[in-house]
Design brief:
homotetramer, alpha/beta, Rossmann fold, 2 domains, eight-stranded mixed sheet, seven-stranded parallel sheet, Adenosylhomocysteinase-like (chains A, B, C, D), Adenosylhomocyst_ase-like_sf (chains A, B, C, D)
Chain lengths: ~500, ~500, ~500, ~500
């Protein structure tokens, strides 16, 4: 499958043109991705949070060209520099402090080893927090092989620490696209070892296995998928009748959704704006496009810090919520001239158009909290009459002929990925959800899950939440027998119907 | 069906003992209601808001014994005093000012008369706001006959105003149970007129028709039900295979839910506590039992006014939300000694027990925002060692032998019904939802709705919301063709999947 | 001084025309009061909170014409009906529950009787809370005689309860102007008893003594004055060199100011609007005129409940604060057409003019939280082309020829006095401040206070606050010796310089 | 005065031992500074915000040893590298965008050149924002010479840009103590040029002139001092009768105070915590020591983002405010075990003691928002049984023998200076205040200001605020003649009495 190429190291080769095209035209949503991209869009998103820890040494040798061995004599890994393991270990230990839910899961489930026999191949961001997840899976009995879902996001030191303890990791910060597929391949394609569980974030691993090693699926008990894009791919496979194993959509679990969107964005909008622009929020006129969970989080935080916020919406129900929450609902064109900050949270494209950008006032800040890099029509700003001036990392001033400057953050990509960090606690929610989904799928009795995409059972969603309550010293009330009967509930949950809105 | 009884006027008679028992044992939820109650629990709930407008004249003659005629010569109604019509008309006109959504619906739909031919029998609270609904239905082409779903809630003047304009209304404030059923019967049982639509709030009307006039259902195109209790009854019927017409559950529409629970309670908790106790909120220690929509509304308002709020929860997901929103999650017994105010919003029973009440501090205020009158074990306070002292309407001091006073509001019934008013705007949401549900069911093509219980289609839910946006001068954004295609949405909605959590 | 008049009872007689004119032209602020008013403006302000407790019996006999005796045989009082004492006693007991600071003061100071020998004549609102103050003063050794500072605000039952225990009270609800002065006179002019301390609210008592019994001031050790108006009068006297005793301005103590304005208005704006109009706050467009303490309180509360608030200001510093707190700063004329609610908190006159009123939209609510009845030009609405319709107590619809209705609350008088109640806790702050001021002045060594107007010493202001902390179970931290030295502070306070802004 | 020393360049020499000691023992507050420090404490505070812009080139040559000349041929400056001027110019231009008040002041006052003839020697942080101030002073007619008040805070590029345009600047990032005094001396001691105005931040410049060049004060019309420390020094001089020119305390102007404390800390507490620890605020238990303006800002922001905040206070009035604002008031020792974050804002010393630190839970974060580096007893943590681990810049883990980690930020120095940036807008308030104070003192008629310390006149404070209102598109209301008369105010202000609390 993988051959040497001219430069003396392995390169991913496609068996034939169709295969290559298959990878190239693989759409996240119909019509949305250009043909020139052959890995999932999310895998090349800029990703800042990890960067701060990671060395920028001059070592330009590709990890693929290095011979490395860990202290146990293993060479079954490929990382930037195995010698960074100690630093990475400390990062992992620090992360563990805020991921007590996983540590608690380790303890509760360690006796029974619910993942004994599980062989998990994983493709996620490789950070200290992921390491805590991987080491939890190992503690519960699993064997793991791991690769990165994003070419920029790997914390090299953490990858080294994992490799040092014996987890075969294939990932480094700054992979090329070829590296990306090579790593996935090395992860999956190991003599004498065959995965029976897949943990994916973005669907690239799943896709690779599907195209290159379809026979692996005969042994796989299930796929756990984390991302919007990956979930979308799975539903497409399911719809096409091509999904041959059960898959768990953990992206849409209640707990994860609330934390990824409402709670996390409530903090990251402030953080992202502050780190890039040192803006004072008090008194600023802000328009937030979209009043879904992300928009609600942004609006709450900005209003609380004294900004004057209005919103745009296409959905009358969300618009009515905005009214009741104290935000004026406007059309962007009505207010664009007065705004100090424009934030997109719609999931849509070209929400901020060149026409809007032309009418903004001097000093207006524009950023995207919503989706990929489509919401702001940044491409329209790449025109000769406008001057781009990079004033800091992730901050560009676009200068109009009359001297007006508009400040574009992260070139219109996701501010919360590019310019702020995700709190470990949020990652703990996600990682715990993933671990429970793996346990559920791996241990489910034959027949409980068909070849379809499932949401995490509400009871497990509730369990994820309950594992995180001790962080807050929160004490749950238990139903009495009489009360449980009155409510028609099991005392251990689930406590709500599936359609409950929280 | 209705016969004269000894006291010289009609009284509802049951054909046989089983029938009577049927009415008596009819449960809202299994095992919850005592056998001695023969009408829905909600129909006898105390209800204060309307009371302020309604006369307390000394006229003790029962409306059933009065001969009244309106200015058009009709006697097909039974209200307290037809002469109060003018005062009631003004109340209706004032209500119309805040119900522009219904007025707008009248205008938009008046040309086509979408309810032409509809014969609607309705059983709801009879207030100025209901009158605006009824007159909207009439304007859209319907014939209506109306009765009250609660023996206390009728605004006599409004009933008179409706009767004066020709709507047969049978209702007055302070009905007996016998009056209640007599009114329903008079409403349904009219020679030469047979209902083809039912609008119910609590299920009593539906039940009466079901038991007494089952043949009516042959002509009925659908039932629109407003209340938790009534919806529960309908689902039971459906489950038992006894539901013979389509029914629309408007209680669970998104817009109505948010307004009835989150937004309305956010205001009514303050209003209810202030009107009854003149409490200062700043610095008060408050425990809110239950962090669902009602609890969230209460907590938001109290925190905003400077109270120090903690919550109790049985559901770890809601508990985690409370943590993230800044509320300590505790067990009631842990904090009960320190609390200044205890508020229940659980939907459960005996959440505040006698043991809790015994441990409260002097001056602690206890009230129920949740459900019926079960949440606080008020019955346990009816014991010889405790003294009850009524200090104001709806306010009792319960005095312990050592002099400690606990202040119980509304005897543990719903504070928001008993001690505060519901804003007209909230009632407008409900009424508009009801009107659209009636139009939908009445005009639906054969076969769209089976003999089952349906939620309002999301698109109509969105339409209800959109009709209320002009109140806030809110301007919706429209999707461009390109954007709609990108999102895979129709430009006119619905804009969200059914499971969307808002 | 007081003679019988033709109707068979005493009436206040003025010795000569100049005297009478003196009372009539007595201005609170230059040029503001009409000549036809001879008592302080505040003494005839409408005052709702007490009203709810007070009987509306048909007994039309003037108390001045009744012969009443209490159970101890005393006739030295004049109240509506001494038989209401028991009901009044319960009201006092309920008030005591929220006035633990005064009870605590009673206990701490009772041994030493710091007011032994004090003969206090008082003129304040007579409510349950005042009764707790008076009985505290008595417990601390004082003899008291009391009268009402407002002709509407007396709780008759409370006055009866005080009279029953032996405090000579001269007050009832609904006094005439003549009654008002008669009561003051009876209070002061008692054979064999001469006041040595004055507690006044509005300055009418002080003025009466000054004009009629100037010799009393020879014995008086000090005046404690509560109101803006009274304080203004005192400063005028002082400026004119006519103040012959020390006076304490308790109106401007920090604690009282914050509670009377910021904290109290934060709650009463919601209460006043809700009780009168049942308005839903969510999404309402509100303009608040003036961003002082009252305005800040109103804005905070309304914003928290989802209103969209903008403000008007004349002072750039307050305007900048409003910006930083998230409120748009506008001119009233710029926004008047869009507003749902207009609230004045300026202390100024004609802030809302007829021109503004003409441009308001249908249904706009207008009310005054600021000052007297001058802020809204209500007089301009008394014109033939407009129709007034009283829809509830304190609520008028003013109807324009085109049918537009503007809703004016309390005829432009203070909403928080007319339409909401003042929490007992706030009254406790005031009463404790008054008690401490009396103790301070009565016990001050010769020479500490000259014939001037003083603010309460900061240390006593801090003491008032500290007496109220137990209500919140608040635990103060004590400075260590080392810390006190480092800060240059006494460990017992005062803790801040006089100019500290809090 | 300045001589060459052995290493071949000038070094500050003290004439005699007493002089040197004088500088060394110079206290900011009595007893607080160690004798080993010879410059003001604030001048060596860590200061991060500027650092991000400033190069960390390997050029280790001291600027004092470099021969540099600007493009106009001048050598009268000493900066890191004059070639960085272009980059610095861009930073100044960016800063100008958020400092429109100064630009506006330039325009309004440029015609009359109110500082014509002024020779200003300045000692402040040298940042882009200061450059805007300096260039404003020049535009208004002044000649300026400038030096840095802090050895770390200079933005080298900005210093270069100023030097390039002809302002003699003597400052670079990373000065030694000797450099510090040398720069001040070079700034003051210029042949043929004598300062007549001083702008100081910390008092070091004033002190140097006072000790070395006392004759300068004969020409100086006034000192404008910015800092708490410098103001304290001035009051000491004044008290000692040694202040020989008028001085303006701009630190205590209302506008500056509110922005430096309440509004700025409201944002910087979030920013500082996030940048250092990536903490999630939601649900965190936080104790804030001190509820002054800084504490209020911190509490407001943290509460708004879902933290559960309690406070400690020594002052009962502030404690009562905390209660009314919804914060529990506790002693630190009562809650220390449960806290996730401890923040000091007291201005006091040893507020967090070793005993408290010993009882903190694992992972507790401790930081100082208050004053210097005294509030947390960091020294007590420098003991053998504890391990310090630096995990990031400004972040240390202190590890107890049992493995417990406490996270100390900025080694207990000010978080808001060390770990977050100050928004340009806040610096604009300060700079505008300084400029107006200079204009006022320079142009005041003889005799208006004596040899004393003055607060900025309220009218100028209001003018500073009004210059910043256009940033918010805020529109002030003007008093009518009638209203001004009614209020007894001048239509142009001042609008409040001096004791007004805002």
């Amino acid at each position: 499958m993988a051959h040497k190429h001219g430069h003396g190291r392995e390169q991913i080769q496609f068996a034939n043109a169709e295969d290559k095209q298959e990878f190239s035209k693989f759409p996240t949503k119909a019509g949305r991705r250009s043909l020139s991209r052959s890995i999932s869009q999310s895998s090349t998103d800029s990703y800042s949070s990890a960067a701060s820890y990671t060395d920028s040494s001059d070592d330009e040798t590709s990890p693929r060209d290095k011979a490395q061995v860990n202290s146990h004599g293993s060479t079954d890994f490929c990382v930037k520099n195995i010698k960074q393991a100690e630093f990475g270990r400390r990062e992992i230990e620090i992360a563990e402090q805020d991921m007590s839910a996983l540590i608690s899961l380790r303890k509760r489930a360690q006796g029974e080893k619910p993942l004994a026999g599980a062989k998990i191949v994983g493709c996620t961001h490789i950070t200290a927090q992921t390491a805590v997840l991987i080491e939890t899976l190992v503690a519960l009995g699993a064997q793991c092989r791991w690769t990165a879902c994003n070419i920029y996001s790997t914390q090299n030191e953490v990858a080294a620490a994992l490799a040092e303890t014996g987890v075969p990791v294939f990932a480094w910060k700054g992979e090329s696209e070829d590296d990306f597929w090579w790593c996935i391949d090395r992860c999956v394609n190991r003599d004498g070892w065959q995965a029976n569980m897949i943990l994916d974030d973005g669907g690239d691993l799943t896709h690779w296995v599907y195209k290159k090693y379809p026979s692996v699926f005969k042994k796989v008990r299930g796929i756990v998928e984390e991302s919007v894009t990956g979930v979308h791919r799975l539903y497409q496979l399911s719809k096409a009748g091509k999904l041959c194993v059960p898959a768990m959509n953990v992206n849409d679990s209640v707990t994860k959704q609330k934390f990824d969107n409402l709670y996390c964005c409530r903090e990251s909008i402030l953080d992202g704006l502050k780190r890039t622009t040192d803006i004072m929020f008090g008194g600023k006129q802000v328009v937030v496009c979209g009043y879904g969970e992300v928009g609600k989080g942004c609006c709450t935080a900005l209003k609380a810090l004294g900004a004057i916020v209005c919103i745009t919406e296409i959905d009358p129900i969300c618009a009515l919520q905005a009214c009741m929450d104290g935000f004026r609902v406007v059309k962007l064109s009505e207010v664009i001239r007065q705004m100090d900050v424009v934030i997109t949270c719609t999931g849509n494209k070209n929400v901020v158009s060149r026409e809007h950008l032309d009418r903004m006032k001097n000093g207006c800040i524009v950023c995207n909290m919503g989706h990929s890099n489509t919401e702001i029509d940044v491409a329209s700003l790449r025109s000769p009459e406008l001057t781009w001036e990079r004033v800091r990392s992730q901050v560009d001033h676009i200068i109009w002929p009359d001297g007006k400057r508009v400040i574009v953050l992260a070139e219109g990509r996701l501010l919360n990925l590019s310019c702020s960090t995700v709190p470990t606690f949020v990652l703990s929610i996600t990682a715990t959800t993933q671990a429970l989904a793996l346990i559920e799928l791996y241990n489910a009795p034959e027949g409980r899950y068909k070849q379809d995409v499932y949401l995490l059972p509400k009871k497990m969603d509730e369990y994820v939440a309950s594992l995180h309550l001790p962080n807050f010293d929160a004490h749950l009330t238990e139903l009495s027998d009489e009360q449980a009967k009155y409510m028609g509930l099991n005392k251990n949950g689930p406590f709500k119907p599936n359609y409950y809105r929280y």
